Amino acid sequence: MVAKETLIGGVLAATDKLxxxxxxxxxxxxxxxxxxRRMFMDALKNEAPKEGEHDFMKALRSxxxxxxxxxxxxxxxx
Length: 78
Description:
The protein is mainly α. It has helices at 4-24, 27-45, 54-77.
């Protein structure tokens, strides 16, 4: 089992990578990175939240959804 902190770090690193890839217009790589980030998020669903962690996880899920929506908008605008 992968530590929760490692999974969260993977989500954040993938998000940073997505920003860089989308900025370059590397849409093929964006698709791959989105899938990787979704795998991290799916793995996090299986982890029981610690006390006080619900708001953090809710914010993380919201940020991931917002970034995917932004990427879709950017892709359509190209």
